[in-house]
Amino acid sequence: MKKFIQTLKNIWSIEELRQKILFTLLLIVIYRIGSHIVLPGIDPIRLEQLNANNANNGILDLINTFAGGAFNMASIFALGIMPYISASIFMQLMTVLVPTFQKMQKDGESGRKKINQYTRYLTVAVTIVQAFAYVSYLRQTSGPAIMENFGAAYFTISTILTLTAGTMLVMWMGEKITDKGLGNGTSLIIMVGILARLPQSFFQELTSRSTRAGNILIFIVEIAVFIAIILGCILLVQGVRKVPVNYAKQLTGNKQFGGARQFLPLKVNGAGVMPIIFAQAIMFLPTLFTLGSTSSIGKAFTDHKNIWYMVIYSVVVIGFTFLYTALIFNPRQIADNLKQNNGFVPGVAPGQPTADYIGTIMDRITLPGAILLALVGILPGIAELVFVGMQPSFSTFFGGTSILIMVGVILDTLQQIETQLLMRQYDGLMKSGRVQGRQTTSAVQI
């Protein structure tokens, strides 16, 4: 405890780090306040009554999770950061598939600025489309909550403009946190939205267990399992396969450069959380063509406790993991970079043989990573089956996107804090070892 207090004092004593933390907290507070401001023309009391009787599932629940509950509350930040995430993913894929964007990405800082500018323009377009769809969703599910003195055309136009402005403000706050704050702004905003639902879910589960005799012990076991899952997710997020790389010695004047042995870290889970997001979206699509939620097909694709849901979901996650990893990971480019910098893998010829060798290793470690990622995705359903009576809102924190995003973002943020401490010759956050983040250079860091 004494070391912890001393670490907090060291953090606060660094002016730059203190300003970063305060700036980040300020923007996060603004974001959470805006998440509770209801759209013009919506009666919040009626809306709360409607939400108490309705429950989202599929992709809508995913959006509501990322928005910190603002989606169901019809907030000005109802769409949250999701349009920006969608635009960023699209632009990231374009830099892999389209030669023009590939060249732009290799142009350094100027190319990065152009890609960011195109991402912002695309975010506006995506937000307008999603805002129009959200208006239709409000009329269908929350029609009684819309005030009568708001005309249909006026409500549609004002809502689209408000949601677009809200999303652009959230995007701006995310970029400002990344530039002047602590951690990746987009990731932090998503994590704050997820964590905002944790205390309520925790107390709901505690209240539910405490009302029945002997269930407090079950609640304690649930917390122990939850901690074990967090530890497992940390291993999954940080797991790497180190490929040894040697660099040839170079003599420049009387000085010798190179000759050092380093390692090329290949991530076990190179795709991050994206396969789970894609899988949840795919699992939601078949429900649009079913006759209703009572049909067997609709139940199989919406009930995460259903065995067929788990099987299909796992297969989709594994497939998307290989697909997304193949899109963002280019062994040939890595081999060319090593060759240009006089680096080589011991026992492997430079060029195409190195690319084949790295690609083979990546394929081997991606399979167990994909299986573990699929297991994390179906853990909420397994938790509800094992712990009978668990609240669905609490079970969502036992796996899926929630736990992976929280673990990854917290690790990245702690790594930045520790880096600032070590740069100023303070002790790190841990007595032994160092805090490591996700070690990713992906444009979409969630």
UniProtKB/TrEMBL annotation:
Source species: Terrimonas rubra
Principal location class: membrane
Assembly and oligomerization: Component of the Sec protein translocase complex. Heterotrimer consisting of SecY, SecE and SecG subunits. The heterotrimers can form oligomers, although 1 heterotrimer is thought to be able to translocate proteins. Interacts with the ribosome. Interacts with SecDF, and other proteins may be involved. Interacts with SecA.
Keywords associated with the record: Cell membrane, Membrane, Protein transport, Translocation, Transmembrane, Transmembrane helix, Transport
Subcellular location: Cell membrane; Membrane
Name under which the protein is recorded: Protein translocase subunit SecY
InterPro entries per the UniProt record, alphabetical: SecY, SecY/SEC61-alpha, SecY_CS, SecY_dom_sf
Job description of the protein: The central subunit of the protein translocation channel SecYEG. Consists of two halves formed by TMs 1-5 and 6-10. These two domains form a lateral gate at the front which open onto the bilayer between TMs 2 and 7, and are clamped together by SecE at the back. The channel is closed by both a pore ring composed of hydrophobic SecY resides and a short helix (helix 2A) on the extracellular side of the membrane which forms a plug. The plug probably moves laterally to allow the channel to open. The ring and the pore may move independently.
Lineage: Bacteria, Pseudomonadati, Bacteroidota, Chitinophagia, Chitinophagales
Transmembrane segments annotated in the record for this chain: 21-42, 76-98, 118-138, 150-173, 185-203, 215-237, 271-292, 307-329, 370-388, 394-414
Membrane topology of this protein: Multi-pass membrane protein
Family per similarity comment: Belongs to the SecY/SEC61-alpha family.
Gene designation per UniProt: secY
